[in-house]
Amino acid sequence: MVASPEQLDSVNWISFTKPIEASFEIQFIEKGKPVVLSSNNCMLTPEMHNEMKKLSKGDKVIVQNVDVKAPDGSSIKFYGPTIFVE
């Protein structure tokens, strides 16, 4: 996936029709240096928004360690997309 920093900052990262419990990490790779930030819900944190403002062409954003609680209480874990900044 390819996106601009402005597009990334406006994304609703995890969207469901019913309230859910979720958590995820985003690894920002800016000029080859990784920064990993975590959210304990389905929303971007203020720190994640700040990191997105620093992104420039050639940087990467990797959504990882997504953990969603299903209605039956079970946990669904998966990796999200890798996004290349244009």
Q: How do the strands and helices of this protein lay out in sequence?
A:
Elements: E1 2-3, H1 5-9, E2 22-30, E3 33-39, H2 46-54, E4 60-69, E5 75-78, E6 82-85
Parallel strand pairs: 1-6
Antiparallel strand pairs: 2-3, 2-4, 4-5, 4-6
Question: Can you walk me through this structure?
Answer:
The mean pLDDT is 83. Strands 1, 2, 3, 4, 5 and 6 form a six-stranded mixed beta sheet that branches. Helices cover 16% and strands 42% of the residues. It has helices at 5-9, 46-54; strands spanning 2-3, 22-30, 33-39, 60-69, 75-78, 82-85. The protein is elongated. It is of the alpha+beta class and 86 residues long.
Number of helices: 2
The helix-and-strand class reads alpha+beta
What is Rg?
13 Å
User: What fraction of the residues are assigned to beta strands by DSSP?
Assistant: 35-45%
Parts with pLDDT < 50 across at least 5 consecutive residues: none
Order of helices and strands: EHEEHEEE
What tags apply to this protein structure?
86 residues, elongated, six-stranded mixed beta sheet, single chain
Give a short synopsis of this structure.
The protein is built from two helices and six strands.
